[in-house]
Amino acid sequence: RMQLVGSGGGSVQAGESLRLSCAISGFDGVAYTLAWFRVKGEEREGVAAIDSYHDIVYADSVKGRFTISTDDAKSILTLQMNSLKVDDTATYYCAADYSPLSDPLARAWAFVYWGQGIQVTVSS
């Protein structure tokens, strides 16, 4: 059974950087989609996703600032966040599924495996 454990996060000033990591254990598939989501209050937003075809998608709000990556063994998923804005303040979650999902950022419901929330706070 796949398990995800997120780490990183914290409190930073606007313009600074943070790196989120998600340690993945029990991955035993070939096809996959790995993603980061964030929750602000009642709103959940897909941030970035990468799949087994090496397709990568980003939310428009983070394009050019955030980078998602994973290693060949699928043992870790990272989200490098640069030029952080106050609006990036949220609880971030890593997520995984054993299938290459179309439009993954809009399909949080399709992800079976989730890490715990990681708080990111950006102040002005």
Describe what this molecule looks like in 3D.
With 124 residues, the protein is mostly beta strands. Helix content is 0%, strand content 52%. The chain is built from no helices and eleven strands. Strands 2, 4, 5, 6, 9, 10 and 11 form a seven-stranded mixed β-sheet that branches. β4 and β5 (43-51) form a beta hairpin. The N and C termini lie far apart (41 Å). The model has no long low-confidence stretch (mean pLDDT 96).
Structure summarized in a few sentences:
With 124 residues, this protein is mainly beta. It has no helices and 11 strands.
Mean pLDDT reading: 96
H/E order of the elements?
Answer: EEEEEEEEEEE
Q: Structural class from helices and strands? A: mainly beta
- The tally of helices reads 0
Radius of gyration: 13 Å
The helix fraction, in percent, is under 10%
Uncertain stretches: none
- Biggest β-sheet, characterized? 7 strands, mixed
Please state the overall shape, judged from the principal axes of the Cα atoms: globular
In whole angstroms, how far apart are the ends? 41 Å
- Strand element count: 11
The share of residues in extended strands comes to: over 45%
What keywords describe this structure?
single chain, four-stranded antiparallel β-sheet, seven-stranded mixed β-sheet, 124 residues, mainly beta
SSE diagram, text form:
Blueprint: E1 3-7, E2 10-13, E3 18-25, E4 33-40, E5 43-51, E6 56-58, E7 66-70, E8 76-81, E9 90-97, E10 113-114, E11 118-123
Parallel strand pairs: 2-11
Antiparallel strand pairs: 1-3, 3-8, 4-5, 4-9, 5-6, 7-8, 9-10, 9-11
